[in-house]
Design brief:
- The chain has about 350 residues and is α/β, with parallel strands linked by helices.
- Helices cover about 35% and strands about 15% of the residues.
- The strands form 4 sheets. Strands 9, 10, 11, 12, 13 and 14 form a 6-stranded mixed beta sheet that branches. A 3-stranded parallel beta sheet has the order 3-7-8. Strands 4-5-6 form a 3-stranded mixed beta sheet.
- α7 packs antiparallel against α8, α8 packs parallel to α15 and α14 crosses α15.
- It starts with 5 loop residues before the first helix and ends with a helix.
Length: about 350
């Protein structure tokens, strides 16, 4: 996979789970101590400890897809395995010692909304998407693993639970389908920081409301978010995808037909050029990685026939450089303010 292709694949990664390969390291597990997910926390590493949660907050029990996990005291060494989980953890004053890559985009220092939060502290990269390096995770001796925006499998959960506490993805939503509010609350509860998490959510909700109040013209207009990762192939994101959720909270109406075209368990509908009419909406947002991709889409004969194209109501947003597409793809309490600041003037410029 070329470096230039990674941003496109990174966006499409949210469309569906990938097959999972779990490398179980018996020696590493033995070194960390066996036991169930409810065992005593492992000895913390030398990484900076998070701000102390109120002692009264613990023990806490967090329900998730694979049952529930009781955390007896404030965790000191945390690994995040969800693609964007580190954002909420950082927002709550904690620096994870380990995190996963999203197609090798390195979850530290890269994105403008997290640079100051990470500072000079870099997490250990312990996997890519849902393929976790159990040896690396075990070596960090975490007392808590968080996997919210993830497709963690039961066997992975069971393996990790042998040596640490694990809070898997929310049960009531599909993998990669939980709203940012739900994931923030789960993370806040696990860290003993419920009040701080609620404050983050309230502040972000206020930002969205501010945009809706300022731009009542958004209300009632249909919008779709799409990308094209190769010639002749297109993707339109469903209502459970963070990108679509972001625009719905700005006041736009998503097109239900996109959800009906998506495969079960997928966050996007795959479209051929003949199916592009489903994207003939009031506002169409393309998340792209290059001018070549933009030109290719615009040159598609069937796309040229759409009113959204002819009337120039389509918007081509870069995934990075500036990192607008990445910000609303993450759709977290840290990235949303940046995404709003960047996308609002672009949307209002469309007449």
């Amino acid at each position: 996979m070329s470096t230039g292709a990674r941003p496109v694949l990174a966006r499409f990664a949210r469309s569906a789970p990938r097959p999972v390969v779990v490398a179980v390291a018996a020696l590493a597990l033995a070194a960390c101590g066996g036991g169930s997910g409810e065992s005593a926390p492992a000895t913390p590493s030398s990484a900076p400890a998070p701000a102390d949660a109120a002692p009264a907050a613990f023990p806490v029990t967090v329900a998730h897809k694979y049952g529930s996990t009781t955390i007896d005291k404030a965790p000191k060494t945390i690994v995040t395995l969800g693609l964007s989980d580190q954002d909420a953890v950082l927002a709550l004053g904690v620096k994870p010692v380990g995190a996963v890559d999203w197609f090798k985009e390195q979850p530290y220092g890269k994105w403008p909304w997290t640079k100051d939060k990470w500072g000079d502290t870099k997490p250990e990269i312990v996997g890519e998407r849902d393929e976790y390096n159990i040896e690396k995770i075990a070596a960090l001796k975490p007392d808590l693993v968080i996997a919210q925006y993830s497709g963690m499998k039961k066997e992975q959960y069971d393996t990790l639970s042998k040596f640490t506490k694990v809070v898997a993805q929310p049960e009531e939503h599909p993998d990669y389908g939980a709203p940012w509010q739900v994931m923030t609350r789960q993370i806040g509860k696990a860290l003993g920081k419920d009040a701080e998490a609620e404050k983050l959510i309230t502040d972000i909700d206020a930002r969205f409301k501010g945009v809706r109040d300022k731009h009542p013209e958004f209300t009632g207009k249909t919008l779709a978010v799409a990308d094209s990762f190769e010639a002749g192939k297109y993707s339109a994101f469903t209502k459970t995808d963070p990108k679509a959720i972001f625009f719905s909270e700005l006041g736009f109406t998503l097109k239900p037909e996109i959800d009906t075209l998506a495969k079960p368990g997928w966050n996007a509908a795959e479209l051929s050029a003949e199916k592009l009419n489903v994207l003939d909406v009031d506002r169409l947002v393309w998340v792209t990685s290059s001018t070549e991709a933009n030109d290719r889409i615009k040159a598609e004969p069937l796309y040229k026939k759409l009113k959204v194209s002819q009337e120039k109501r389509d918007l081509f947003v870069p995934y990075q450089g500036p990192d607008i597409g990445a910000a609303f793809s993450f759709n977290t309490v840290l990235s949303i303010p940046y995404a709003i600041d960047e996308i609002e003037p672009l949307l209002t410029a469309i007449k």
